[in-house]
Amino acid sequence: MNLVIERLQFIYLLYISKSTSIIFVMSESFKLFRLQQIDSELDKSYARIKAIDQLLADDEKIRRSQLKLDRAKKEHFDAEKNLRLEEQKVKDQRIKIERSQAALYGGKVSNPKELQDLQQESESLKKYLSILEDQQLEAMLALDDAEAGYVEAAEAHATTKTQVADQKAELSEEKTELLQDIERQKNERNAASANIVPAELSIYEALRKQKKGIAVARVLDKTCGACGSTLSATIFSSAQVPTKITRCSTCGRILYAG
Ligand SMILES: [Zn+2]
After folding, report:
1. Distance 225 CA to ligand 1 centre (A)
2. Which domain holds residue 249?
3. What distance in angstroms lies between residue 42's CA and the mean position of ligand 1's atoms?
4. Fewer CB within 10 A of the terminal residue: the chain, N end or C end?
């Protein structure tokens, strides 16, 4: 809507000598300014598509959460393996104690010194069993922790995957809309450039390349809206003339005094 109003504001009325007919003529700088607006919109659309494509190709979030999940899975596997080892050690120790007890009370040994040695051995085996049982308990607790960590990592990974998929779906939708915008903007561009003199169009295109995409600068409070330099009185008044193209003496851009 603003563009329509703007367009109307800068349509100049020229009375043909007989004043029976009126023709509407847009100022030359307005035509270029309009083209600049469309090109800037196109530049913005292309830049956003480029950013979207980069975001769509970026799988860093998923990669990181997958890495965490793999690590948690490995920790769980190791904790399970460790617990099995500790359980085996306890089992083996109990067998050793049983054998020692059998020798002690089996009646085959009657020598008091040997019986005392067997008694001592049995005591130390039992002491060590208690250490092994503690280690087994620690291994069980460690497995519990590892299991909780694994479940947490799996849930976090599933959430990340969903979030990324949702985000990518939104971005794809935005890209589709941008591509439609671009088609519309291209049509507008064709229409806008059709009535610009080829020589002026060439100057415009060359300036776009040299001046980071901005070939036309709006005159704002007697200054160039692009480079900010104050315009001389001659340039300022020349920029008001609808039939000619005036350029900023500092940056060289086409001035639009609308
Ligand atoms: Zn300038």
Report:
1. 7
2. 28-57+197-256
3. 22
4. N
